[in-house]
């Protein structure tokens, strides 16, 4: 199952989604890499270690993505893991941001 599957809600603050989803690397960094922008998997790192080629998804995740505020967006993700009886085992978290409104 190499796809996302999530539900969520959105408002004036941004959006919150729950389920199997991409991490902030794909939201904020991959578009600036050669494999994410134009080269595809030909320019991916071995075994997609940086996850810029959509190779890995995060299960059991809660993700927040802000609205665009003057060109700046940000977001974060937290995964509860998935090991029965050990809530902190295999947990994942990540944050990211992007500015895309003219020159800095």
Descriptive notes:
The structure is a single chain. The chain is mostly beta strands. The protein has helices at residues 24-29, 34-39, and strands at 5-11, 14-21, 58-66, 72-79, 92-99. The chain has one domain. 12% of the residues lie in helices and 38% in strands. It is globular, with a radius of gyration of 15 Å. It starts with a strand and ends in a 5-residue tail after the last strand. The model has no long low-confidence stretch (mean pLDDT 86).
Q: Low-confidence segments, ≥5 residues, pLDDT <50?
A: none
Our measurement of the CA-to-CA distance between the termini, rounded to an integer number of angstroms, reads 40 Å
* Run of helices and strands: EEHHEEE
- The shape is globular
Mean pLDDT rating: 86
Structural class: mainly beta
Outline:
The protein is mostly beta strands and 104 residues long.
